[in-house]
Amino acid sequence: MTDAWEAGWWRGATRVPSPNFSARPAGARVDTVVLHSISLPPGEYGGDGIRRLFTNTLDWSAHPYYETIRGLEVSAHFVVRRDGSVLQFVSIDERAWHAGRSSWEEREAANDWSIGVELEGLEGDTFEPAQYAALEKLLPAIDAVRAIRHVVGHEHVAPGRKIDPGPGFDWTDLAARLQWDAQRIPAAKPRQA
Question: What region holds the N-acetylmuramoyl-L-alanine amidase domain (predicted)?
Fold first, then answer.
């Protein structure tokens, strides 16, 4: 790891350890980043719902929507807030629980071989310039230690089941910012199941 990392934790993020992780399978080739979107409650930004969900401290009675996800144990490696601040919940050396039933390039179970990045937002809404700027720093930092082959959306690895980050995410802008080969970042429209 470079000086930017310590045991899979990026020094550019605020560390908020989640209990929701497990070991990756032996020999897993971690070479993909899966982008998601999340807001809790849906469409509301800036609160502590995401942090509480990923740390199993969410008060299920605090909002009617929370009752619909009661008991859910999930996580992602990173969350990029609307203001561009980055939180890290799981070391990239471990498996976060972000993708569920998924596949990409004939590999099943994306959690085994991917790094999950949640963008605070809602499927279909646009994302903030500060979030793209944060990705412009975070993704090369990950690439420096994991040789990332693909950055894809949850919609790409679970088409028909998930739609995030959705049509409001600007894949073209991300590709231009990173100046990565076009094969590493998909077209906006996910493949059909």
Answer: 18-166
**In angstroms, rounded to a whole number, what is the distance separating the alpha carbons of residues 12 and 139?**
11
For the chain, the structural domain boundaries read 5-20+28-184
Assessment of whether the complete model's pTM goes beyond 0.85? yes
Burial track 171-191 (b if 16+ CB lie within 10 A, e otherwise) = beebbebbebeeebbbeeebe
Of 187, 183, 174, residue with least CA distance to 135: 174
How large is the angle between the packed helices 171-178 and 129-146, nearest 10 degrees? Answer: 50
CATH of 5-20+28-184, one of 3.30.70.3300, 3.40.640.10, 3.40.80.10, 2.40.37.10: 3.40.80.10
Query: 90: pLDDT confidence band, cut at 50, 70 and 90?
Result: very high
* Closest to 193 (Cα-Cα) out of 150, 161, 165: 161
State the Cα–Cα distance between residues 193 and 169, nearest whole angstrom. Answer: 21
